[in-house]
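Appendix B, record 7
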Amino acid sequence: MTELVFRADAYAKSCEATVVRADEAGIRLDRTVFYPTGGGQPGDMGVLKLADGAEIAILDTVKGTAPDEVLHKTAPGASLPPAGTRVTVALDWERRHRLMRMHSCLHLLCAVVIGDVTGGQVSDGKGRLDFNLPDTALDKDKIAAELNRLIAEDHPVRPRWITDEELATHPELVRTMSVKPPMGQGRVRLLEIEGVDLQPCGGTHVARTSEIGPVFVAKIESKGKQNRRVNLGFA
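Structure tokens (predicted):
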């Protein structure tokens, strides 16, 4: 099990850690600031800095098979540190921050477009959500105006936790049709945008909506008979 520093502090850019194991599957550390791919958010990139000044590039971060196990992926053939090696784990912070901004913006989009979410993706500088709205016409200018209004209102964004049992009694909190929040650990992490949105999410987010910055709706697409895809970008 890896201590997930990002879960308590999404703004932590680096941390000290010890290598637990390193092989072709990836480098396992006892703690990390790197977010592993999940919930539509890509895994983090960055470097592991060694005591002698050498650096190991981390090209992706993914989940392992055990709960809270994180695998830091290196380039094929990269030299791997032995177990017990002390390293400094350093994020590509600018990329991560853009992902945080867009992920939070997609939560705002859930509040602006009312419908079940059938899919989505956070990307560097852009993002999308698919909605089950077969008979609804969406106006991209109105959606953009509403998103930018909520962003400018500077709503606090914060995580909180509820028990599995509480979530079971409030199924309306789950907006995604195909992906259900992980349960079985006793509690589920929610992401609250004060006065705007509340839903399960394990990703990293900004602290206030104003940090997202201006956005625009690039296009709205029909994906099959039911899905309407809303594509966003930073203005």
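Remarks on this record: The chain has a mean pLDDT of 94. The chain has four helices and 16 strands.
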